[in-house]
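Standup, Tuesday
Yesterday: got the pipeline producing structure tokens again.
Today: sanity-check two examples.
Blockers: none.

Example 1:
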Amino acid sequence: MALFDLPIEALRTYRSRSAEPQDFDAFWTKTLDAARAHDLGARFEQVDCRLSSVDVHDVTFAGFGGHPVKGWLVLPAGTREPVPVVVEFLSYGGGRGLPHTHLLWASAGFGHFVMDTRGQGSNWTTGDTPDPVGSGPALPGFLTRGIEDPHEFYYRRLFTDAVRAVEAARAHPLTDASRTAAVGSSQGGGITLAVGGLVPDLAAIAPDVPFLCDFPRATTLTDRHPYREVGEYLRTHRGRTEQAARTLAYFDGVHFAARGRAPALFSAALEDQTCPPSTVFAAFNAYAHEDKHIEVYDFNDHEGGGPFQEAAQLRWLPGRLTA
């Protein structure tokens, strides 16, 4: 697929028509207050993974509803003083997998907290966190689970888990809470934007080709999943378009971006049919912090920059975490 979205000149000024709910902040304040009524209960159990360069901890903490959520904390071997920590959120369908696949940030001298994704982890890598909450009729994916009501929507639980994951990462004595960053690609990028809007004191965020942005455009522009899940749901459940749009507005990365209070490094790929570039630029252009940058990959689909974007993050992020 060649270029199919807006030209780059238009992307740089594009603004989403996603309507922010009037009670957006109240909705999220109430949601997080309810989650924090449960003891975070972060537990770290060191495990032997036969890796000499890192120390690995199996993590459990209380997420949405007090539900147990798993993760990994990977630290440079022999860490004795608190180090900056990078909290990573994962792409659609994936789980925390195995520790030896998460060596990048510890190799750069940082702590690396990887949050498992409730109910996922059965597509490209394994997960260990069930989602104990049911929903109404939904497609096999996650983007329509609970779409009838923002209080029941799957991503309310997942975004809440993510905020609590930052709190869990900061709870370990060898991480420096004042130097915490959030990163993620695709779904992980969308979660990163949500965390950036909900956690006021992050040092940096790096959303890579983020999913979950500019729902009004994304769900009508691309026929690729996961966004297509919404169209297929509405094709069957006729007359629920406004109801679905109302729910999705509470989870749109554009609205979280407008609350972003940390330096940010985005990326977009101009042939990306999964997360079309206009939807990424919608969040980038709305992002509130003046220290923001975006890497653009002209001839790439949803793989984006891949290792080149990781290299860009390795150049950019240390300056925000070591100051």
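Example 2:
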Amino acid sequence: MTETPARTRGRIRAAFTEAGVTGWLHAADIDSGAQLDVGADQPVVTASVHKLCVLVALHQRAEEGLLDLSEQTVCPPPGRTPGPTGLAAMLDEVRLSLRDAAYLMMAVSDNTAADLLLRRVGLDAVNHTTRRLGLTRTHAVHTFGDFLALLKEDTGPGGPQALTDPRVVAGLRVLDPAATNRSTPRDMTRLLGAIWRDEACAPEYAASMRRLLGLQVWPHRLASGFPFDDVHVAGKTGSLPTVRNEVGVVEYPDGGRYAVAVFTRASSPAAVLPPADAVIGTTARIAVDALRARTT
């Protein structure tokens, strides 16, 4: 007997609670439109998930002839946006194409690569892209460098160590959807669906974006819920103190395609919380299994 949507939502909420997080989720069958939600219209902090919006804006402008993805750019060491990966962690001058910067932005969430592309595309273009696709509750407020500067300002003289203090974390503006880059789970699955149905861009550009999303290196969130050789997961994570997110698409060998967006906020400020990471995969699997059961 197929589980009722109310029962499925209850299981998802229970999984969030057991992991020590508050969570919001939306899952949609990309082809049939069937969906399941738990707080899908809740405004959420996107963090690095917003790099997906930058990616779409970049490819739309390439399709319009306003830039060439093979265009070369030079990234000198001074002025790089901080981060632990990619260009942000390199010591020497780098020359690369826009599409290779996009790879670094998506595969390892490189902040410097993201801001390099934002300088070429512009925040206004990113917001124009999301509006044009009907993502009415998605908005980019600042670059990733400005985002990190705001975090540093709110952390104060205590530096990164202060982020273990719940009182400091509670006052961070980057954790307030009204003050930072934001979206909703439903908006994010709508964006993913548009990419997978070739609606966000012409097919060649949509295929390029799907490829990059499939190259993300992090397996500990969304992908952890689908440990099968024949199931493909493509996605983009986002992280902040207490915040762990991922949006992505799960593709089955029978042709089933499911867009999933999971956003969480932990009660603990600890930087390492494996249950909070894993629950993203757990709840995504519950949702996708429920959607698949409706078609069998």
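Quick observation on example 2: The beta strands are 21-29, 35-38, 44-45, 72-75, 94-97, 182-183, 232-240, 243-251, 257-266. The mean pLDDT is 95.
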